[in-house]
Amino acid sequence: MPNSRKVLVTGGAGYIGSHTVVSLAQADYQPVILDNYSNSSPQVIDGLENILGEKVIHYRADCCDQQEVLKILKQEQISGAIHFAASKAVGESVTMPLHYYYNNLNSLVVLLKSMNQLAITNFVFSSSCTVYGQPDELPVTEETAPKPAESPYGNTKKIGEDIIHDVVNSKVGLKAVSLRYFNPIGAHSSAKIGELPIGAPSNLIPFITQTAAGIREKITIFGDDYQTVDGTCVRDYIHVVDLAQAHVRALDYLQEQSTDNFYEVFNLGTGSGTTVMEVVQTFERVTGVKLNYEIGPRRQGDVEQIYASVEKASSVLNWQASKGLDEALAAAWKWQQSLSKHYD
């Protein structure tokens, strides 16, 4: 018999996944991590157990392995799943499209097939604002028509949402939510978990913190000739702890629904945009550390500017971001400074 509080978290040792595991446990859910550690570290489990003061159930497995996924779902009597497991670097996806299509879509199909086989109905999908491409109007709402994705990564999220939509329409009993998040940043206040890129970071904030720590020589800002206040790209930066709590609310929301075959999408952001240059300057102000940066050419796959309308998440999920840019950047820097103590 499935345990109504037991939730599979694929990619649960990753950046957003690990913070969501903390929020789930604090909300009296029992998270079960499935991760192959291709873009994370087994040492994240130690950080999680340190924060929570208890053991965390975790499996080293590949989400594309249906036999393994089925075995874990059965063994743990899972009642729902939050699916983070995916390759996630926009730039890398442009050079390695086949890897992204295989990994991101196959893992989703395997998980949905396995859930269907065991009549597990509650599903939260880690989607992305990349499904909107380069929007014509800002802020983007959930009704903003998706445009052609600017990268294979973005396209896998768009196709992933289409797959979920079609599965729900097939009347197999699936209740699903796709969370389209904007740019997660920051770290847990304990500095026991945070963003842990393997190799050179593809995201702005870890590149900033690694440069501040002397690991990287300098930051390259990709383009300063966009139609924005200072010529650099605009993004909606959201604290990862706020984002994690939205996943808990999404799971609560699904459990509150009395009807099957149900699907909703929600934007998760702060509702305002910040330029890359503003992030750099804010980091310098908050930490007192001067950054070495240069302006480079535009990067293929980048959208000029995007930020969210978050009215639907506020009114339907009863969720909104509460942490600001200063707090997120301070937490990211604290995490970077603690890394050598906790991780190889």
Q: What does the model show?
A:
By secondary structure, the protein is of the alpha/beta class. It has a domain at 6-182 and 240-269 and 310-317: Rossmann fold, CATH 3.40.50.720. It contains eleven helices and 13 strands. The chain has helices at 15-26, 43-52, 66-76, 90-95, 97-117, 152-169, 204-212, 240-256, 276-287, 311-317, 325-342, and strands at residues 6-10, 30-35, 57-60, 80-83, 122-128, 175-181, 183-185, 219-222, 234-235, 237-239, 262-268, 274-275, 293-296. The strands form four sheets. The protein has a seven-stranded parallel beta sheet with strand order 3-2-1-4-5-6-11, with helices on both faces. It has a two-stranded parallel sheet with strand order 7-10. Strands 8-13 form a two-stranded parallel sheet. It starts with 5 loop residues before the first strand and ends with a helix. The model has no long low-confidence stretch (mean pLDDT 95).
For this entry, give a set of tags.
seven-stranded parallel beta sheet, 41% helix, alpha/beta, 344 residues, two-stranded parallel ribbon, 11 helices, Rossmann fold
Following the backbone from N to C, one meets helices and strands in this order, namely EHEHEHEHHEHEEHEEEHEEHEHH
Number of strands: 13
The CATH C-level class name of one domain: Alpha Beta
Let me know the largest β-sheet.
7 strands, parallel
User: Reading side by side through the largest sheet, how are the strands ordered?
Assistant: 3-2-1-4-5-6-11
